[in-house]
Structure formats: structure tokens, C-alpha cells
Design goal:
The structure is a homodimer. By secondary structure, chain A is of the alpha/beta class. The first copy, chain A, contains five helices and seven strands. The first copy, chain A, has a single domain, classed as 3-Layer(aba) Sandwich (Rossmann fold), CATH 3.40.50. In chain A, about 35% of the residues lie in helices and about 20% in strands. The radius of gyration of chain A is 16 Å and the shape is globular. The two termini of chain A are about 30 Å apart. The model of chain A has no long low-confidence stretch (mean pLDDT about 95). Chains A and B meet through helix 3 and helix 4 of A and helix 3 and helix 4 of B.
């Protein structure tokens, strides 16, 4: 398979490809690093990337930053910026990439545990994760040409645990392997419309 | 209680207040009708409404239009417009209204069945509903001064069934009474961080 992993150079992106079987052509896209550069929030940049790459079998989105902060101090602009970054970035990859994915191909999005498991300062991230989960569920039933779509919903990734120190008290960090298997299930399996939880 | 129902003149808004116990002061806000007018997507308009009304015990948000259309024909702008209308409209009411709600008061948001039960052309609505559900779950744990927040998630409302004719095959319309009880549970009960499903 020809697999594009957007955000493929980050911690989740690295985990995402770690359990795929051998023989795939994997293209890593990043903001500044990777095989090809893209700004997922910029429609023109996303479309240009797809035009350059030609046909793909799988697109994996491991991108997005949401706003972390106490809900009582959060402003509408901060909230909307989170939606634009984490939700619209991934949605752009789907809506603008649909025509570039082969029949029977797949999209795999990345949400997160906060959609159902709250932490302090995480209400914007929660909303973003919930939007991505439900979009995958909602879109799957009408994707054209047998294209599948799922969301992988990881807990606190081991590789990122230090960066989020103090935010996730009592959360057992999830191994890269565990997360890798979830992406492999979506990319190489046959499921669609699923939220694949890894906790 | 002093209860503000935004979108209170619509079908869901009418159902929302139908099972509340007597003796509340209910203020209906609408785009063009109701006791007070507000554009929930406009921060200044939302802030002006709250400033006029003074302190409240409960805010109920029954607002929002998402984009309906096949996912294969959906553009990023249509998708973002849905998020701005249905998600940010309700989020604005919470973030800008927090300081105007009395200690121990509540917010009740309105999502919908599409966050977990897909229909054709409903993927944007699904994402909006999922965002609202997860925001209520995420925000509840850190709302200040004992303020509660829940999301009511109704199925196809009996009163709106004709308007959505053909979109919800096989969905059993939900009575106004059933939906009214869900809002009463959130407004008059003690629960917080819940998605109250009515199907």
C-alpha cells in the first residue's frame, strides 16, 4: 500500500507506522520535516500536497493542537482556534483528499481519550476529540468507492508522557506498540466507522 | 430559578421547558423572536444579552444549524460553518455566560443522536454533536462555584419529524415529553458532566 502519514514525524505518527506489515511505501508529511511539507489548516497547501503525491491507498492524520487551559478562563477565540487546528486540519485531509484515495482505501484520524475521560484544562481538547470520533462514525456510512474511515483514540502516549507531566494524574501511559496496533487495525484491517480506543 | 432558554422559541426549546416544575422565571431568547434577541455566533451580541439580563440560575442552549450534505461533496468551508454555528454558538453561551450564572447554577447544551448514530448527509452534524457531548464531559470537572453542565442528546424530535422527512429512516420519533424530562433532569437535578440521551 501507498500510505501517507501526516504528522508522521511526531510521537503519535511514529507509533502509527510501527506495527504495519512490511512492504508498504510510507510517505511522511510534516509542517517542517518529513518527505513532504504541508500546513493542514491551509486548504491550498493540502490540495497541493495531494496533487504532488498522486494516488494513495491510505491517509493517516496524526495532527492537531488544541487549547489547554481552565474552562473558566477560556475565550471563544482560543476555543475556535483549537477546533480549526485539531478538527479542521484532519477534516481538510479527508474532504480534500477523498478523490486522491484509491477504491477501497482508507482514512485514519487521531482523536484522544479526552472525548470521554476528562482532565483539568482539557475541555477544548475534549470537544476536538469528540468531533473527530463522531465524524468518523458519521462519515463512514457514505464514503464513496469502498473507502473506509476510522478514528484512533489514544490515551496518554508513553513517548509524550514527560511533555504532559502533571496533566494526566493516574493515567497509565500507553505504549507505542499498543497505539501502533490500533493504526494497523484501521489501515490493514477492514473495519470502518470505528473509534479504536487504546488505553 | 431564573432560567434563560436560548433558542427557546424553536421546537426543541419548547420541549425543553415543558417538564420543568412551576414557579420558574423563564426567559426565552431567539434570533428574531422571544423575550430578548441574540446572535449566538456574535460574541458582542451574547455579552450584551447577558449584561442586560443580570444573574441567572440556568442557561439552556437549544441553538445551532449544522451542514447537511453528502460527505463526498462537502467542502471545508461548509464544515467549518457548521462548527461555528452549532458548536461555537453554544460554547459562546457557556464561556461568555459563566460569570453571569449564580453559584450552583447550570448550563444545559443540546447535541443530538448523530454523534453515535449515523445518517446519510449527517457527518458534519455528527461532528458538532460529538464536540458538544465531549465538551460537557470535559468541562464539568472544572466548572467554578459548583456550576454544573450537561448535554441533552435528542433523537429525531416528533415536532421536527416532518421537516427532516427522509433523513432519518427507521428512527422512532421522540416525543416532546421525553425530551422535556431530559432537560428537567439537567436543570432541576444535580447531575453534571452527563450526556442525557433521549431516543
Amino acid at each position: 500500500m501507498r500510505i501517507l502519514v501526516v504528522g508522521g514525524t511526531g510521537a503519535v505518527g511514529k507509533a502509527a507506522v510501527s506495527k504495519l506489515s512490511k512492504g508498504h511505501e510510507i510517505i511522511l508529511a510534516g509542517g517542517k520535516s518529513g518527505d513532504i511539507q504541508v500546513n493542514v489548516m491551509d486548504e491550498a497547501s493540502v490540495s497541493a500536497m495531494y496533487a504532488k503525491l498522486g494516488k494513495l491507498d491510505a491517509v493517516v492524520a496524526c495532527t492537531g493542537h488544541s487549547h489547554f487551559g481552565p474552562v473558566a478562563e477560556m475565550g471563544p477565540k482560543q476555543f475556535l482556534d483549537g477546533l480549526k487546528d485539531k478538527v479542521m486540519g484532519q477534516i481538510n485531509l479527508v474532504l480534500l483528499g477523498m478523490a486522491h484515495v484509491n477504491d477501497g482505501g482508507s482514512f485514519t484520524l487521531t482523536s484522544g481519550i479526552l472525548s470521554y475521560e476528562p482532565i483539568r484544562q482539557g475541555s477544548n481538547a475534549a470537544a476536538c476529540d469528540g468531533a473527530i470520533d463522531s465524524f468518523a462514525i458519521g462519515a463512514a456510512i457514505e464514503m464513496p468507492r469502498g473507502i473506509r474511515i476510522n478514528a484512533v483514540s489514544p490515551g496518554l502516549l508513553e513517548a509524550a508522557a514527560q511533555r504532559y507531566d502533571g496533566y494526566f494524574p493516574g493515567h497509565i501511559p500507553v505504549s507505542n506498540d499498543r497505539v501502533g496496533y490500533a493504526y494497523a487495525k484501521s489501515i490493514e484491517g477492514a473495519v470502518t466507522g470505528q473509534v479504536i480506543r487504546c488505553e
